[in-house]
Specification:
With 420 residues, the protein is of the alpha/beta class. The protein has two domains: 166 residues, Lyase, Ornithine Decarboxylase, Chain A, domain 1 (Beta Barrel), CATH 2.40.37; 249 residues, Alpha-Beta Barrel (TIM Barrel). The protein contains 13 helices and 22 strands. The strands form three sheets. Strands 5, 15, 16, 17, 18, 19, 20, 21 and 22 form a nine-stranded mixed sheet that branches. The chain has an eight-stranded parallel barrel with strand order 6-7-8-9-10-12-13-14, surrounded by four helices. Helix 6 links the parallel strand 9 and strand 10. Helix 5 crosses helix 6 and helix 9 packs parallel to helix 11. The chain is globular. The model has no long low-confidence stretch (mean pLDDT 95). The chain binds pyridoxal-5'-phosphate. The site of pyridoxal-5'-phosphate has 15 residues, from helix 12.
C-alpha cells in the first residue's frame, strides 16, 4: 500500500521504496550524477493557486507577485507566468530575468535599499509597475528620471510600522534594520511624492519577516496601517490605493502543519482595513510558493563514528543547501531499510557549518545509499556557490511524468579555467 508523506502529496513509499510522483527515486539516479535537484512544477502551481484562492475568499482585490530572489531559474519564472501573476525584483539582473520570461513591465515591482541610477533608469524607461521606495534620495532620483522620461511613476513607500516592543522582538525586520524607513519619516516621503508631478504615491509597503507561521502580529500591523492610511488621506490629502504586505510567510508544507491559514489572514486584513474593497492588496511571496517545490537527491559518501555519535556525509553540501536560519531541509531514505541509532548528516565541505539538517535522522543508512532532501527550493539555487564543488544539475519532473534536464551541473574543467 502507498504510504504518503504528510504535506508532500508528490511523495510516497511503496514497498519501502520512495516514489517522486510516479517515479521510483532509485531509478532516477541510476544513470545520473548526484547530487541533483528536481523541480516539481505541479506543486509550484498548486501553491500559487492555493495562495490566491485562499486570500480571495475574503479579499476582492489582490495582486500576487512572485519574489524572484527566492529562486530565479528560467523554468520557475516561466511556470509562474502561466498564472498571470506579477513579479518582484531587486536588481537589474532580476529585471532582465523577468523580461526574458515575458512578464509585462506593468506587473513588475522593484524593491531594494540601494537601487542604482542605472537600474532606476532602466526600470522607469521600460514602464515598471511600482517602485518600493526606501530612501528620500532615491525618491528624488526617481522623480528626476521620470521627468526626463516624461512619465508619472507609481511608487509605494516601504515603511517600518510601530509595533509593541514584545512584537518587535519576534520580527526579523526590526527598528535596527537597514530596510525601509520609520513610519514618521515615511510621511515626508509621501508628501514629497504628492507634491511632485512625476510621482504617484499609490501605496504603502511593509515586509517585516521571513518564515512567519503565526497570525499573532497581523492585527497589530494592520490596525496600525489602517490608521496610517486614514491619516494620510485626512491630514495630507493622499489617497492610498494599495497596501503591499511583502512576502515572509513560511512554506505551504510548513504552514499546513501549523495553526495558520491564508483564509484567516485574508479575514484579518478585511476586518482591519477600512474600505478594503477599494484597495489593491499586494503580496510578494517567495518561500511560500517555491520552498517545497524542489527536492534534492544525494548519495551517502561516507559514514563514521566519533565521540559515540554517528555521522553520514552526503554529496550535497552547504554550498547548494544554503544554511539559513530559516531553512527546513529534511532528509528521508529512498530505500527504507528500517530504524537505526540517530545519525547526523553532514555535507562534503571541510567546514564545520556544513551540516544538512540539525535534526539527526534515525533510519538505517550506509555508503552509496541515496537520500532525498525536502524543501530545497527557496534561497538555495539563487544563493548557491561554487565553493569547492560544481553546482548540481537541476531536473524538472512534470505532470506527464517526464524528467527533463533544465540546468546542467557546472563544468569542473570550466571552473578551473575561469579561476585563472
Ligand atoms: C521586499 C520583499 N518582498 C518579498 C520577499 C520574499 O520573501 P519570502 O521569500 O520570505 O516570502 C522579500 C525577502 O526578503 C523581500 O525583502
Amino acid at each position: 500500500m502507498d504510504q504518503l508523506i504528510e504535506n508532500y502529496p508528490y511523495l510516497s513509499y511503496r514497498n519501502k521504496k520512495l516514489y517522486i510522483r510516479e517515479q521510483l527515486a532509485e531509478a532516477i539516479v541510476k544513470d545520473k550524477t548526484t547530487p541533483m535537484f528536481i523541480f516539481l512544477p505541479t506543486r509550484f502551481l498548486n501553491n500559487i493557486d492555493f495562495f490566491e484562492k485562499a486570500l480571495q475568499k475574503n479579499l476582492p482585490n489582490i495582486f500576487m507577485s512572485y519574489a524572484i530572489k527566492a529562486n530565479y531559474l528560467g523554468r520557475v519564472l516561466s511556470i509562474a507566468k502561466t498564472r498571470d501573476i506579477g513579479i518582484e525584483v531587486m536588481s537589474l539582473f532580476e529585471m532582465k530575468l523577468a523580461e526574458r520570461a515575458g512578464y509585462s513591465w506593468g506587473k513588475v515591482i522593484f524593491n531594494g535599499p540601494a537601487k542604482t541610477a542605472e537600474e532606476l533608469q532602466y526600470a522607469i524607461s521600460k514602464g515598471v509597475g511600482y517602485i518600493n521606495v526606501d530612501s528620500l534620495d532615491e525618491l528624488k532620483l526617481i522623480a528626476k528620471i521620470a521627468e526626463t522620461e516624461q512619465k508619472i511613476q507609481p511608487i509605494t513607500i516601504r515603511i517600518h510600522p510601530q509595533f509593541k516592543d514584545e512584537t518587535e522582538k519576534r520580527l526579523l525586520i526590526r527598528k535596527n534594520s537597514k530596510l525601509g524607513v520609520d513610519f514618521t519619516r515615511g510621511l515626508k516621503f509621501f508628501r514629497f511624492a504628492r507634491d511632485n508631478q512625476n510621482l504617484d504615491p499609490v501605496g504603502v509597503h511593509v515586509h517585516v519577516g521571513t518564515n512567519l507561521t503565526s497570525h499573532d502580529f497581523y492585527d497589530e500591523l494592520l490596525s496600525f496601517l489602517n490608521k496610517y492610511i486614514i491619516d494620510l488621506e485626512k491630514k495630507d490629502n493622499i489617497v492610498i490605493k494599495q497596501i503591499n504586505l511583502g512576502g515572509g510567510l513560511a512554506s505551504k508544507s510548513t504552514l499546513d502543519n501549523k495553526e495558520f491559514s491564508l483564509e484567516k489572514l485574508g479575514k484579518q486584513i478585511a476586518m482591519n482595513i477600512e474600505g478594503v474593497k477599494d484597495k489593491l492588496i499586494i503580496f510578494e511571496p517567495g518561500r511560500y510558493l517555491i520552498e517545497d517545490s524542489f527536492v534534492a537527491l544525494t548519495k551517502i559518501l561516507r559514514t563514521k563514528k566519533t565521540w559515540g555519535r554517528k555521522w553520514a556525509f552526503t554529496d550535497i553540501g552547504a554550498n547548494s543547501l544554503i544554511p539559513m536560519r530559516y531553512s527546513h531541509y529534511k532528509a528521508l531514505p529512498v530505500n527504507d531499510k528500517g530504524k537505526d541509532q540517530y545519525c547526523n548528516l553532514g555535507g562534503p565541505l571541510c567546514l564545520p557549518v556544513d551540516v544538512i539538517s540539525n535534526e539527526a535522522v534515525n533510519f538505517k543508512l550506509e555508503e552509496e545509499d541515496i537520500l532525498i532532501i525536502l524543501n530545497c527550493g527557496a534561497y538555495t539555487l539563487s544563493m548557491s556557490e561554487q565553493f569547492g564543488y560544481p553546482r548540481p544539475a537541476v531536473y524538472e519532473l512534470n505532470k506527464e511524468e517526464e524528467l527533463k534536464l533544465i540546468k546542467p551541473a557546472d563544468n569542473l574543467e570550466k571552473m578551473v579555467e575561469e579561476a585563472f
